[in-house]
Amino acid sequence: MYHDYKISKNTLIVTAAMLGLSPLAHAANWFKLQGVSPAKAPMFSVSGFIEPSIYAQPGNEDNLEKNHIPNTDLIAPGLSQSTTANILRARIELRGNLNPNISYFFGGEFGDNGFTHVCRRYQPGLIDGHFTFSYIPGARIEAGLIRAPSAEGAMQGFMSNNFVLPSTVIGQLMQQPMYNSNDPYKINQQTNAYLINGQQSLGDNAFRYPGIMAFDWFRNGHWEFTYGTMIGMFGTVAAGNQSSSPIYAARLQEAYIFGGKGPFRSDVQAGIWYQHASPELNDTSYSMNRYGVDVQYLQGYMHQWGRQFRFQYMRGTGWISAASAFSSAPGLPATLTNTQLYPGSQNTANGYMLEGGLFLTKHIEANLRYDYYDRLPNDPAQQRIFRTWAIGLQYHFTPLTKIMAGYYFRTLDVPHQPNPVANSISDAVDNEFAMQAMIAF
């Protein structure tokens, strides 16, 4: 399928091998691509990618007192501007094969994102770091800093991201912020939620946890069955807070493969997954559960009329975070300037996303996504519903390098309208425009 691209086949093979994409491998999937180096990969290779990005969301704060701008209209992770440019991700990766049965992968993140912002300070760190042992038939063992089995949208590699802004349901429900479990935290007596300021936030963990995972895939004709199961620590290596609290995660998936190789193959895939963690705060252990299902159809990557469709549903119970409404400002109560963490097992959240894409030419792809997230429906006073329609356009230079633009129609609903401030924040949420280049090297 690669003879149409204006790069040589050997160049693509070498580049993809360095990135762990293995375009010649049969029955590739994200467990394999991100866990095992290609069989012909060298002992040592260096690669990486950068993602320069531009954001603009003017906001609509006419009804807010003192001209405060809510965080929903500010660009993360700094939350200081409504229009800005940054390098969202910048990674250097080392990987290779020590022998036919042992491969390794280490990656450093230097971009400007939630992973590199620890206690409101920029701090680049190790985002991947693991060895994979393939001695046991049917059970490859991966140990180190691992992307945990979960939703398909959280396991994708960078070349499969079709929008600059991530799905809200995945970002809020699966991209769990980490907190220093040794700090004392105040309780909001009205909601029984912990109040956590920015100095206590250790950033997010980019879906990765230190641990050990068993996984493998089995091919029978066009059919492929894949599993992955992991035990790890619910903590963040970037902040040096490797909690002893456990996390368990598993995913099962079945695929029917039409053809193609590596991450650009054509297939229909369905998966089911589950995560359970026991995070600690204020010397108390809590329960956090996440689970869901997903289906995807991909056919004809970088071919005219190539198309894709994805559906993902996920649900969470216990340990639900509600990000602060405003940055710290005089005259605002702590409940508005602090993240509120709802740790009780009775708390719930759920959501889904639908996404479609069509290649108008072999280089130009149009995309559409609908994203829905219902946070804390068990608590009417705190329930918030996030809805986003996103339209996107991409130009693919090569299978690994592209530029994309998207416009996001965002709404935030307060179903039970508890107070004027909540309604004002909801009314202030505005649309956003974003552009990004993904450049592999």
Automatic annotation (TrEMBL):
Keywords, sorted A to Z: Signal
Secretion signal, residue range per the UniProt entry: 1-27
Record InterPro entries: Porin_dom_sf
Designated name of the protein: Porin
Species, as recorded: Acidithiobacillus thiooxidans ATCC 19377
